[in-house]
Every structure is written in structure tokens, then in C-alpha cells.
């Protein structure tokens, strides 16, 4: 067994070219730190298996079924030999020696009560993009609904909130696109909850990290481009039906796991009032799709 500083885990699902570009950027930009690249394939049918199974630069772990994001990473971590694990989306490109920067920050702050590190992600034009999110709650749902209503009413285009200019700042949840953490922490918490398939699993995981008093931080020194959506095979800025369904399902699972039954029921009521009407008026969705989302919400 060859131990390394960092195990980099990438989940591939029919994103052969994106994953290959991500791997190339890691190899091109990473130095002065030992690492391994573990690619977990979620039963791709785009030629990924044929390509990556012969790539000697990586550990290739094929799955016979699509495990989703969380369980896919859990599988990858089973094969990890690093002191740290770096969960990296297939639709990311390293711009600088990001792996080393993450590693150095953790090593220099071992007594800093840090659970997870991420960075301020950028798009292909190097403009700052979504890099963190929030724990789910009733108040958060109401705030999001009010913002959406105001934006629609006054025709305000949605813009990502400006992030603090600090070199290091604390967040609720580091985006799942780039999560860097100690391997021992991941294993102690038994990884991602298998009840999630896609969306919400990193929020639930980091809620457990917060519950044991560890911080989730963004640091600016690592530079990573996030193409955002490439690994979802989506060319539209609007979320697809499948994405909306999985997002809402993840929200409900999260609330049920971390709050009492009364809170869960109130959350469903708030979602029925603030979220479901938007679904009803969305002409992209069929009546059957709308009924399916309704069943998800109220059972």
C-alpha cells in the first residue's frame, strides 16, 4: 500500500471529456505534494470505461450501477490511501497548484478545528461563481421564495451574491464541487448518507461536521474553474425536471433527518405555499410531472 498526502476522487458519469480534462489539469498543475487520482465510474455508456480502465495515471473504480454522487464518493474513499481526500467534480479545471494550497492550509492549521476546505470557484471567464450554500431550514426557504418573487415582480435578473473579500472565511456548506478534508474525518462520519442520490448530500454531511464543532472554510489561494452543469449534461440555465425533483427530494430527506416531526410538517407546508405554485405555472412540465412533484411533497 502506497500512502500519499492527498487522494483526489472524481465521479464520472458519461462525462468522458470533462473528466479527462480535469485529470489533465490536476497532473499539469500539481507538484510538491504526493497524490493519487481515483476515478469512480457510475456505469457510463459513453466510452468512459474503455478510456479510463487503460489510464495508468489513475485508479479506476467501475460501478455496475449509477450510485449517484454520495455513494460514488463513498466507494472511492474505500480505495483512498491519502491523509486527506479531495472530492472534485468532473466539470472542474485546476488553474494553479490548488491541491498543494489546500494541503498546506490544513497542515498549517491542524489546531484550527477545520472540517472541510473549499475555494472560491470561478467560471471560464474567471468571474467568481457559486462556491458555497446554506443549511436547509424553514426560514431559508421563505427567504428564497421572497427573493424569487421580488426578482420576478421587478424583472431583476438573478445574480450570485458577492462573497467576502477575506482570504479565508467561514460558510455553512462548501459546495460539493471541491471538498478537501482529512480522510479520518470522512471515515469517522461514515461518509455521505446513502439515502441521498444526488443533491443535498454535501449539505447533510457538512451538517454532521458542524454538529461536532468543526468549521467549513473557503480559502482564496486555490484557483479552480467550475463549468457548473457540465456533469449534469444540461445546456439550459433553467433547472430540468429531474434536477428539481432530486433537489426537492434531498431537501425533504435532510429536514426529516435533522429536525423533529413538527418542524418537518411545517417545512412541507411552507414548500407547498412558496415552491409548488411555481411548478404549477411552469409550462415546461407535463401534468404527470407536476403530479409527481406534488406526490413527493405531500406523499
Automatic annotation (TrEMBL):
Keywords: Membrane, Transmembrane, Transmembrane helix. The keyword Transmembrane helix applies. Residues 7-123 form the Glycosyltransferase 2-like domain. It comes from the Bacteria. The chain crosses the membrane at residues 262-281. InterPro entries: Glyco_trans_2-like (IPR001173), Nucleotide-diphossugar_trans (IPR029044). SUPFAM superfamilies: Nucleotide-diphospho-sugar transferases. The keyword Repeat does not apply. PANTHER family: RHAMNOSYLTRANSFERASE WBBL. This is Glycosyltransferase 2-like domain-containing protein.
